[in-house]
Design brief:
Length: 242
């Protein structure tokens, strides 16, 4: 008899717990629509595009999810998905736009030699899907209060320098139609000889260099995008290379 009551209590408690859980789940879905939709199943191609968008630092110039607000010279991308076809977007990503020798103005870099056809397709799919929020597609955080070298190492990844100049600044990413046939290293005797002061390194990061038209990849202009402090931190990190 006592055993029977205990069993009934367990059953009732279980039922209540299930009902509460069920009810709470429903409430969460309604209450935090945006949070839930970001964790819902996303088309894998769109999700990949969101991660590629962060990896190649598109988000550092165009803002998180392409919302703009970084620089008046860089447009938001929230509207272009409806205006441009996947082929038009691929053309802009591969060949760049507004290539400029003006060091105070950023331009859309040429990505064709660096980003694969598949990645370009994923970027276009993400932009055409309206640049939705995708869980974990967020730029690397920059450690604070741990010195310039540590911050610079994070910036080197966050701002996508690593995609073109390689890990540890070893260079070698093919740039077939450029004179050097590859994107230069930021390490080694030749680099140290030419860029022998902090000011010279800062200046090339800020002003970039237009070495030719697409499909040649040039050094993007980061003036107006990176702050003086971030430039100093990147220089501190670059100087740790072999
Ligand atoms: C160094 C800053 C910078 C980075 C990094 C960058 N862009 Fe851009 N992008 C620009 C600027 C500046 C323009 C505007 C060029 C113009 O209109 O002259 C632009 C234009 C565009 C356009 C055309 C927008 C329109 O309204 O026609 C697209 C699409 C685009 N970028 C996508 C990307 C993608 C995808 C990436 C990452 C692979 C990326 N951008 C990385 C600076 C940047
Ligand atoms: C889209 C590819 C690309 C990205 C991204 C990129 N660079 Fe470059 N960078 C180049 C190319 C190409 C050159 C060579 C320019 C030339 O020869 O005039 C270059 C040159 C340089 C140089 C001078 C080295 C030399 O020998 O000419 C420095 C320093 C440099 N980049 C730092 C950076 C930093 C720091 C970042 C990230 C904020 C960065 N780059 C992002 C392509 C890139």
């Amino acid at each position: 008899m006592i055993g029977g009551v205990a069993l009934l209590i367990v059953a009732v408690v279980g039922l209540v717990a299930w009902a509460v859980g069920h009810y709470t789940n429903n409430t969460v879905t309604v209450g935090t629509q945006t949070e839930t939709s970001s964790t819902q199943v996303v088309d894998p191609k769109v999700a990949a595009g969101a991660h590629v968008f962060v990896q190649f630092a598109c988000s550092q110039c165009h803002g998180l999810q392409g919302r703009g607000g970084v620089s008046p010279d860089v447009p938001a991308l929230t509207g272009v998905g409806k205006q441009l076809t996947a082929a038009q977007l691929a053309g802009i990503i591969n060949h760049g736009l507004g290539e400029s020798a003006n060091p105070t103005k950023p331009y859309m870099p040429v990505w064709g030699a660096v980003v694969s056809k598949r990645q370009v397709g994923e970027l276009a799919a993400y932009i055409r899907a309206g640049l939705p929020s995708v869980t974990d597609a967020t730029p690397l955080p920059v450690p604070q209060g741990q010195g310039d070298e540590v911050a610079g190492a994070a910036l080197y990844v966050r701002d996508g320098c690593i995609n073109c100049h390689g890990p540890n600044g070893l260079g070698g990413v093919p740039n077939p139609l450029s004179e050097d046939k590859a994107i230069p290293p930021l390490a080694g005797a030749d680099f140290r000889g030419e860029f022998n002061t902090d000011a010279k390194i800062k200046e090339i990061i800020r002003s970039g260099s237009v070495i030719g038209r697409a499909p040649i990849v040039s050094m993007p202009h980061w003036g107006g995008i990176l702050t003086d402090e971030e430039l100093r931190q990147l220089v501190a990190y670059i100087k740790t290379f072999k």
